[in-house]
């Protein structure tokens, strides 16, 4: 390392998705030299990798985009309510070109390690091509769901057919025509893919471990007038999203589901079901805090499944029994209807577990399924997974993995920073509102806060920023207290880490509301970054 000339920048950003692109734009505008490293050969992050059939957004497109530029909002026109992956990827490419971001993004480059050098007071970034780069600030924009989980099922290497994970889908089209296809997993990815693949494949076998509460998306093309009106109301929409609980401009009904007479509640649920999208989860305020209210929502969805799916045995297998919403709410397009097709078979792997993958398919406890293609829609090692894939080491050579005890003892301040790792910022990191908020809006708030913080430090000749142990302990305790007051923590999901064998159970999403969170972050900044140690090198050495 010593013989090499080491390039130096003010900031290194990981990932060229929604987070990395906007971080680069912000830092450039504030005069920080910045380089973004991206493992893929294009921008897009999650929308670059998730090219599986049926992949689309489940937040309405007019809200699932950047709001930092009025001009950008006016220039870009979404075709439909829930556009497909390709359209979102086009949008992010447009953004990269519009703001001339590509010149500071190095593609096809993985950061393997980032070590805080205590002599230089800077981060040494190690790249997969053997290069190093020195930076004052190290910022991760790698998302919460980028570490794919391919379950360790015996025999996968022997499989004679092709297999894919939804999160690492090939760029070229996978042709299912005339093929016997198996898909493992019925989360958001599986539920989007299943109806589309079923239309093409000769036979689709769905290996389901846990059924899902899913609501019709009711996608539709946007009318020209609607788009015009939306663009006209940009400022109001932006304000409303940024001041909301969830980063969308919808107010939640403040009533309890239990306060409503049965017929009225039924009508409310019916209306939300017909409307599609996330309206259902906002019908009552206590669906995720009151078990009785939760069961009312759960039973409504079960009744819909029983109406749609013609075979009552299949319908029953598709009816979830756990609490509604403790796994992420899924939106679908003709998911339950797909089980009425003759070429679709549902296999309950709780009843008959997968034993192994053979050369010819999947062996369960009581059957062998001949397959030519296997799809793993088996999700991700969420929240900490993407960070743990990189060897991030702070003071005294301690890694993030060691500090957080493999995920058993995650502690952050505001979900943005962690003690012992100076000048490290995590965009939508653990213990921030992240995935339970409209992600682009959550990202914008983080990016702007980080950029402002860096600007403040520069203006005040401060070289290092690091939270105090006390501040992060208080924040983590607050996060846990808020989460423990909800039903989320009772579910087995990637939210709680229960989807990954051996992963310590913890709930790492801040549930206090995006509006409260933003206000709190702003107060921290206004109070000269209370909770942080602000260090000048002159006084350290
Ligand atoms: P997921 O929600 O974690 O679902 C994974 C599925 O695989 C579950 O059904 C799980 O069963 C099953 N599974 C995992 N390991 C298995 C095994 N060894 N044997 C059998 N089944 C197994 O993952 P995902 O569907 O990729 O979604 C992850 C998240 O990504 C979503 O919650 C969402 O936040 C995001 N996403 C969003 C969109 C969108 O529309 N915007 C689309 C896709 C994904 P269990 O439930 O029993 O664990």
TrEMBL record:
<keyword id="KW-0274">FAD</keyword>
<comment type="similarity">
    <text>Belongs to the FAD-binding monooxygenase family.</text>
</comment>
<dbReference type="Pfam" id="PF00743">
    <property type="entry name" value="FMO-like"/>
</dbReference>
<dbReference type="GO" id="GO:0016491">
    <property type="term" value="F:oxidoreductase activity"/>
</dbReference>
<dbReference type="InterPro" id="IPR020946">
    <property type="entry name" value="Flavin_mOase-like"/>
</dbReference>
<keyword id="KW-0285">Flavoprotein</keyword>
<keyword id="KW-0521">NADP</keyword>
<dbReference type="InterPro" id="IPR050775">
    <property type="entry name" value="FAD-binding_Monooxygenases"/>
</dbReference>
<keyword id="KW-0503">Monooxygenase</keyword>
<protein>
    <submittedName>
        <fullName>NAD(P)/FAD-dependent oxidoreductase</fullName>
        <ecNumber>1.14.13.-</ecNumber>
    </submittedName>
</protein>
<dbReference type="InterPro" id="IPR036188">
    <property type="entry name" value="FAD/NAD-bd_sf"/>
</dbReference>
<keyword id="KW-0560">Oxidoreductase</keyword>
